[in-house]
Amino acid sequence: MTKYILAFDQGTTSSRSIIFNRDGDMLTVAQKEFTQIFPQPGWVEHDADEIWSSQVGVANEALARIGIKASDIAAIGITNQRETTIVWDRKTGKPIYNAIVWQDRRTAADCDQLKAEGLETTFQQKTGLVIDAYFSGTKVKWLLDNVPYAREKAERGELAFGTVDSWLMWKLTQGELHITDVTNACRTLLFNIHTQQWDDELLSILNIPRSLLPEVRSSSEVYGYTSEGIFGSRIPIAGIAGDQQAATFGQASLQSGMAKNTYGTGCFILLNTGNQPMQSNHKLLTTIAWRINGRTDYALEGSVFIAGAVVQWLRDGLEIIKHSADVEALAASVPDTGGVYFVPAFVGLGAPYWDSYARGTITGLTRGSTNAHIARAALDSIAYQTADVIEAMRQDSQLHLRELRVDGGASRNNLLMQFQADILGVPVVRPKITETTALGAAYLAGLAIGYWESEAEILQQWQADQWFEPKISADHRLNLLDSWHQAIAQTRHR
Ligand SMILES: Nc1ncnc2c1ncn2[C@@H]1O[C@H](COP(=O)(O)OP(=O)(O)O)[C@@H](O)[C@H]1O
Ligand SMILES: O=P(O)(O)OC[C@H](O)CO
């Protein structure tokens, strides 16, 4: 009987389950959006039970669609929205509060306080991260300080913390396993990326008891099996990685110097830097790309908070398009932005600025500006933000990128991809399989059980679909970037 790999891709806006075969072909995708909860401005939550029910629901749907059973699945790989924080009661298995999502800014003032205490270097040297509300650490502290009796319970060892991978693993094994992998652990502000251990000094700064924390494992190994009641028969769970690291793996950016950008709600650019962590001098993150068979690869990451989400705002806020895909035709109806620049700092700015208090700005409007100019400026902003990150990577690593591999919903937009190549002066390449996040998780699981033999096999499976070559002159590029940086300056919080 042919066996398949089932990937769980638990994202910010939807849960997806995708089934792959040995050739890395996608046989089916089942997807379900779930509720986004905005209790206050700047706060974003998910219902952790809905995360679980939607994920298991789409897994069953995917199996049913192609008429296979759990016993036909060789292994499950899990990939997930990162940093999103869940704390649950070990005895009842019930979350003590909603999941606090990576986008949530409620702990921005706590982060300011940590910075004022001069702790930036300590956190950066140990975790590779900047102090920001984006990461899990201050979210866990907030839960312990604000949910009634949470701290007392945590101190008695009654609570468990996990990112979404840990939560899914706990549910899949009915409370048998409380684990995470290094790629998720390294996004918490609590994990030392050099020793690959939870760090007592950081735990004490944030006042988080160690008993809350999951055991940290590699990204590719048989961690355990799904409980019998869930899919009928027990399936090995053999891969875990945060979604951006999984996408880097799925893009076969397996060698130092290779980079990918995923254009979803935000944009996440990861540059593989090989077996040594590279510290950034330009506010990029040093992150673990994966750990396989005792070997750790690292990446430099630039996280941009608003990318495809600016297109959603054109759709839902301004209502100038009906569907996200309509933005391409509207933007292409004008030759350029007519001098309009749009900085979509709706939730502040991520890398390389890390300005929590910047807000969105549109500059250069004239009587001649139209919806089309604004749409084009919105698309361009995605490419400019990426260019800022890649310039910071160039300065940090001295590497000149040979190509940028792209994926994610907005990478379908050819106008955007062409402008991305133009503004970078680097070719952009879109692969045949753009579900690279799920594919990466499938590969990690498959490697652990010998379904795929080696990373060399994975390198061979990656195939380009479309190339976008830079077409504008270096002078034109510099002028555009200069105007963009003037717009950024107007956006910054002073
Ligand atoms: N043709 C398009 N042009 C620009 N943006 C698009 C297009 N199609 C989808 N998007 C944007 O891509 C995002 C969805 O991509 P996806 O990879 O599913 O994101 P996520 O995993 O963050 O939920 C949405 O923000 C949407 O506005
Ligand atoms: O779920 P996505 O694709 O928006 O990715 C979210 C990132 O993991 C946040 O760090």
From TrEMBL:
GO function terms (MF aspect): ATP binding; glycerol kinase activity
| Domain Carbohydrate kinase FGGY N-terminal: residue ranges | 4-250
SUPFAM superfamilies cross-referenced by the UniProt entry: Actin-like ATPase domain
Which top-rank group of organisms is this from?
Bacteria
Locate the residues binding sn-glycerol 3-phosphate.
Answer: T12, R82, E83, Y134, D243
Write out the residues that bind ATP. T12, T13, S14, T265, G308, Q312, G409
Question: Which InterPro entries has this protein been placed in?
Answer: ATPase_NBD, Carb_kinase_FGGY, Carb_kinase_FGGY_CS, FGGY_C, FGGY_N, Glycerol_kin
Q: What is its EC number?
A: 2.7.1.30
Keyword Ribosomal protein attached: no
Q: Name one GO biological process term.
A: glycerol-3-phosphate metabolic process
Which residues are noted in the entry as ADP-binding? T12, R16, T265, G308, G409, N413
Q: What are the protein's UniProt keywords?
A: ATP-binding, Glycerol metabolism, Kinase, Nucleotide-binding, Transferase
Q: Provide the function of this protein.
A: Key enzyme in the regulation of glycerol uptake and metabolism. Catalyzes the phosphorylation of glycerol to yield sn-glycerol 3-phosphate.
Q: What is this protein called?
A: Glycerol kinase
Organism this protein belongs to: Tolypothrix tenuis PCC 7101
Which gene underlies this protein?
A: glpK
